[in-house]
Amino acid sequence: MAAGKGAARVDGPGLGAAGAEPGSGSEYRPGWLVLVYRIPSEPTRLRSGVWRKLKSLGAIYLQNSAAALPASLGAERALRRLRSEILAMPGTAVLLSCSVLAGEQEVRAAFQAARDDEYEEIIDKCQDFLDQVQKEYDADHFTYAELEENEVDLVKLRNWLARVRDRDVFGAARRQAAEQDIERCAEELERYAARVYAEEAESK
Q1: Are 114 and 92 found together in one domain?
Q2: Range of the domain at 59
């Protein structure tokens, strides 16, 4: 999908985010990890940088400067690193391991809603991908260069889905729809690839 033709590039949260290490569902253990922190108000890039890293991990905010993740080894490692970064700003940060005595359903619902939002972003990007492949058909444009760019974008979509799915420890509602759309993208790319190979064979 050549950028020069106005193609919608596949990009989004979690794609190549530096330092992002989602809490692996396979490592999930009961309870939550909560990072409570305070950062100097200036420069503002420090605060936004911490917010972006927490978002890339899939954390939800219980209130201002108090972010939570389901407990896992991966999440603990990532939050410990982020705590060290906050202390070096310099700021203050405490990492807690806890259970929810009241309101567990609400916390889980917020975490599920965040995952569904991510799945919706993937679904939107899948539609962009399918629209771009259709444009290639409409323009009768079948080249190895376009195929390679499409393949790169599909890999990005699959990696993005894998990261969201990895931290989706409770099974969000939109997960299946996102998985189905990724498979649809793969099928359409395979169909486009077959056409590219056929066009190449005819030109020889």
Answers
A1: no
A2: 25-99
Instruction: State how far the Cα of 107 lies from the Cα of 95, in Å rounded to an integer.
Output: 17
pLDDT in single tens digits along all 204 residues of the chain: 444 444 445 555 444 333 344 444 457 788 999 999 999 889 999 999 999 999 999 999 999 999 999 999 999 999 999 999 999 999 999 999 999 999 999 999 999 999 999 999 999 999 999 999 999 999 999 999 999 999 999 999 999 999 999 999 999 999 999 999 999 999 999 999 999 999 877 766
* Residue 11 forms part of a structural domain: no
Is residue 2 domain-resident? Answer: no
Q: Are residues 90 and 115 in the same domain?
A: no
**DSSP line for 9-48:** ----TTSS-TT-----GGG--SSEEEEEEE--SSSHHHHH
User: pTM value?
Assistant: 0.82
Amino acid identity for residue 121 in this structure: E
